[in-house]
Amino acid sequence: MHARRMRGWGGVGAMALVCVLALSFMLLLPWTQSRGDGSTGTGGPGVAEGTHAVDASCQSPEKQTLSPSATDGPTIAAIKARTGEKRKLIVGVDQNSFRWGYRDPNNTGAALEGFDIDLVRRIAEVILGDRNAVQFKAIPTNQRVPAIQEGRVDMVVRTMTITCDRLKDVAFSAPYFRTGQQVLAPKSSSITGYDDTLAKKKICTAAGSTANTQLTGDLKAGKLPASADISTTVPNQLDCLVRLQLGEVDAVVTDGALAASQAAQDPTVELKGAAFTAEYYGVAMKKDADDLVRRVNQILVEYRANGWQRSYTDWLSATLGSDSATSMPPAPQYLRTS
Question: How far apart are CA 205 and CA 12, in angstroms?
Fold first, then answer.
């Protein structure tokens, strides 16, 4: 573990300041900037007319991806055709998820870093020959799919779970990380997990997240106490931690991988109970960009063999452990298409 990456994150007061700064910076970041100069998207000429057909039953969304290929197609050709300063891979990321995609104020320039950022740089290195040939765009949780559909980014690498509903709107790579939904609450809380102790509790989720979808469905199905209040939703998942710190909610439900990093930031909160879902993160791309999907899947084949484990050790082993189910990359499976 790189020691410089771990300093300065203890204490509620410091964390609150970081959260405020991160949220302020997010509001100023130009994720909605104009596409008029042609440098922020992949729409228009060169976008692949693909044949990506998702299995109608979609029982295992993490398997609904195309087989790997190192062959360039029209989408990749359009990316490579960008010139000068615009010759970059445009990627939607998070900038305030500790150890995934964040800006460490202890580092000079507070450059983006983390597990997701390492993967982005590997993709840029293979496609464009330069790991720094990336234009990062910080986007809120609820804007990940629109950013892809509207051509504001080439892809999103932002702890984004592969789901059947999302596969209707975007394409995904093979999974690069396995996680599951968990409850985060103050250590002093009577909440013990995703169970009846959530009765009469206010729970925060990010709008457009799998956690929000899960809780909404479970409340309707009677799998969550009827008195649980899930009305608090926020644009970014980290906003839920701020609400929790301010006492405005009693618990947060999010991916366990993210929750563990947030617990590392604030020693007054902890994970409550085990994960109650099994989910997989994937790289999201435009639905018909088949050549880009295949290329990313080829990059992931190589990354799992050389790079994934080093990145996990650097960023996630301190909170998720070195011998857990998450400490190995998930095995890919692909659609049987030509």
Answer: 21
